Amino acid sequence: REYHIQGCSDYDARRFTNALVDFQKSCELGSDVQDYSCYRIWLIRARMGQQKAATQELQTYLEHRHQQQPGDWPLQVGRFLLGQLPESDFIKAADDANVRTSAEQHCEAYFYAGSKRLIDGNKMGAIDFFKRCLATNETTFEEYQSAASELLFLETPRPESSSAK
C-alpha cells in the first residue's frame, strides 16, 4: 500500500514517471489496492500517449483478477477506462442505496470521468467532473485529492511563452 500512496502523491505533484514506477511496484507486490494502482497506471500511460498499450495491459489484468460480488464497483471503474461502459452508465453505476457508499463511489466516478475527458482533450468537461468530485466532500479519498490537484493545475493561469521577434 505504501507504494500506492507514494504513487498518488507523485501523481498529484505531476511527477508521472515516478508515479508510474510506484504504481507498478504496488501491483507487483499484490497491494490490497491493486485495482486502483492498475487504474492509475492506465491514466498515466494514456496521458503519455500510450493509451492503446495501456488498454491492452488493463484488459489482461481485469481478465485475470479475482472476481468480486456482482455489483463489484472497482470492476466498473476498469470497464469504464477500457471503454466497455459508457460515461453515463458509469456515473449511474455509482448510485447505491447506502448514501455514504453512493457518495464515495460518485467521488471516484467523477474523478475517473474527469481524467478520461482530460486525456481526450476536453478540458472544460474535465474541470466540470473534477468539481463534481470535490462536491462529494469525500476529502479522505485519493480521487478527491487528485481532483483538487488537477483543478489547481487546470485553473491556474500560465505565463505565455515569449517568442523571439
Taken in chain order, the helices and strands follow as HHHHHHHHH
β-strand percent reads: under 5%
- Largest sheet, described in full? none
Q: How would you classify the helix and strand content by structural class?
A: mainly alpha
**Mean of residue pLDDT values:** 93
SSE layout and pairings?
Elements: H1 2-12, H2 16-28, H3 34-47, H4 51-64, H5 73-81, H6 87-93, H7 99-119, H8 123-135, H9 142-155
Brief write-up:
The protein has nine helices and no strands.
Report on this model:
By secondary structure, this protein is mainly α. It has helices at residues 2-12, 16-28, 34-47, 51-64, 73-81, 87-93, 99-119, 123-135, 142-155. It starts with a helix and ends in a 10-residue tail after the last helix. Helices cover 70% and strands 0% of the residues. The mean pLDDT is 93. 36% of the residues are buried.
Provide keyphrases for this structure.
165 residues, mainly alpha
